[in-house]
Design goal:
- The protein folds into 3 domains: 2-125, 3-Layer(aba) Sandwich (Rossmann fold), CATH 3.40.50.20; 136-151 and 225-250 and 287-368, ATP-grasp fold, B domain (D-amino Acid Aminotransferase, Chain A, domain 1), CATH 3.30.470.20; 156-222, 2-Layer Sandwich (Dna Ligase, domain 1), CATH 3.30.1490.20.
- Helices cover 29% and strands 27% of the residues.
- It is built from 12 helices and 20 strands.
- The protein has helices at 15-26, 65-68, 113-121, 130-137, 139-148, 161-166, 168-178, 201-212, 258-262, 296-312, 346-349, 356-375; strands spanning 2-9, 34-41, 47-49, 70-77, 80-85, 93-97, 99-102, 156-160, 182-186, 196-198, 217-222, 227-236, 241-249, 274-276, 282-284, 288-289, 317-326, 331-338, 393-394, 397-398.
- The strands form 5 sheets. It has a 7-stranded mixed beta sheet with strand order 6-5-4-3-2-1-7, with helices on both faces. The chain has a 5-stranded antiparallel beta sheet with strand order 16-13-12-17-18.
- A hairpin with a 5-residue loop joins strand 2 (34-41) and strand 3.
- It is globular, with a radius of gyration of 23 Å.
- The N and C termini lie far apart (58 Å).
Length: 401
């Protein structure tokens, strides 16, 4: 049986969202085929494992986690990937895993930090590579890459916090050129954290100050007229991709908020909904009408750009793309990718007949295949240049002090 280490949590403002997504996913992984090993990273970046971490009730008081699970480090010993006891005189093996399944959200984990660590260890893992994860987390870099690939994005400007503090006047002029209203965002966060709409210069100043609390890098985007917000997920890799159905976002707010996404019945307007997971907890799947009501031309654009963006951003696993649609102009813009989306976007595939368990199985199987394929590539040479290297000399002779 394949042992899957589901990694979640981390030092991120989306810490709790990661817990929700991971616990739900663990309850839908096929236990006839996989053995699930939960691996929780707390907000101090300490790693824990133990079966109690599969229960939502374990997270009501995060300070009690050390009493419910064992603190570990993930490392490689021989041909095994082991969770080794971190503390104590005898640092024995607590468990082993065959493949890692990161279900993390936000800066510090989803941004390539975790995948880079997993690549260093050499373990197969689900989801985007370090490069794909890094690009996918940065709302500025992803726009630059997509624009270079001919994928439409909205007008925007961006800056660092110190640039705003040193030259506020110029940055406000750049924003004015885009035209109000605008959306102000921390460039490397998700789940709508720190995002706000500004309809004039006074509001944009307030919005920038709010965004700077969360990130050094800020992006300001034009708001689309005749707006309809939709989403489309893609599962697979550069070789083979499958789009989900397109979902239309429903909200009474100017954009889909954190509450819309994760607190199903807690928002305003009564448009919210949720799906019940096997622990009895509710995961918001609202704000979504699936399939969305769209003009056929726009629908084709969304499917086309979803696959093109998935490819050019170097993604793998499952990604949910947020789109902004100008319904009058019949034009779709890619807003941003969510490389490890909340609920892993399973509810976009369910109406197609693909159950969550099947989606998870496909993602794990793909990770193992990609790992095996990567092993066929040349990663080192038999010759050892150090065997003839004289440390006192450089390529052009003796090194100068």
């Amino acid at each position: 049986m394949i042992k899957v280490g589901v990694i979640f949590g981390g030092e991120s403002v989306e810490h709790e969202v990661s817990i929700i997504t991971a616990v739900q996913a663990m309850n839908f992984i096929d236990e006839k085929k996989y053995e699930i090993v939960p691996i929780y990273i707390n907000k101090e970046r300490n790693w824990y494992t133990g079966q109690a971490l599969r229960e939502m009730s374990s997270y009501k008081d995060l300070s009690l986690i050390p009493s419910l699970a064992k603190e570990v480090v993930l490392t490689k010993k021989g041909d095994e990937f082991v969770l080794q006891k971190k503390n104590g005189l005898f640092k024995g093996v607590v468990n082993t895993i065959d493949v890692a399944f990161p279900i993390v959200h936000g800066k510090g984990v989803e941004d390539g930090s975790l995948s880079g660590y997993l690549e260093t260890i050499g373990i197969p893992y689900v989801g985007p590579s370090m490069l794909g994860a890094s690009i996918g987390q940065d709302k500025v870099v992803q726009k630059q890459v997509m624009s270079a690939s001919g994928i439409p994005v909205v007008d925007y400007t961006w800056f660092y916090d110190h640039e705003y503090q040193n030259d506020e006047e110029q940055i406000l002029k750049d924003i004015k050129k885009i035209g109000y209203p605008v959306i102000v965002k921390p460039a490397r966060l998700g789940s709508s954290v720190g995002i706000s709409v500004a309809k004039n210069e006074d509001q944009v100043k307030e919005s920038i100050e709010e965004a700077i609390k969360y990130d050094e890098k800020i992006v300001v985007e034009a708001m689309i007229k005749n707006l309809k917000e939709v989403d489309c997920a893609v599962v697979g890799n550069y070789e083979d991709m499958e789009c989900s159905l397109i979902g239309e976002m429903l909200t009474d707010n100017d954009f889909l908020t954190f509450e819309d996404k994760y607190i199903g019945e807690g928002g305003k307007g009564g448009k919210k909904g949720s799906t019940k997971n096997q622990t009895g907890g509710k995961i918001a799947t609202s704000g979504f009408k699936i399939p969305a009501e769209l003009d056929k031309e726009v629908e084709e654009q969304i499917y086309k750009y979803s696959k093109e963006a998935f490819r050019c951003l170097n993604l793998s696993g499952v990604t949910r793309f947020d789109f902004l649609v100008d319904t009058k102009a019949k034009k779709a813009y890619v807003n941003e990718p969510n490389t490890i989306p909340g609920c892993l976007a399973f509810f976009f595939y369910t109406p197609k007949g693909k159950k969550y368990t099947k989606l998870l199985d496909e993602m794990i199987t793909l990770a193992i295949k990609e790992y095996k394929d990567s092993k066929k590539k040349v990663t080192s040479f038999e010759s050892n240049v150090l065997s003839t290297y004289d440390g006192s000399k450089g390529a052009k002779g003796k090194l100068q002090p």
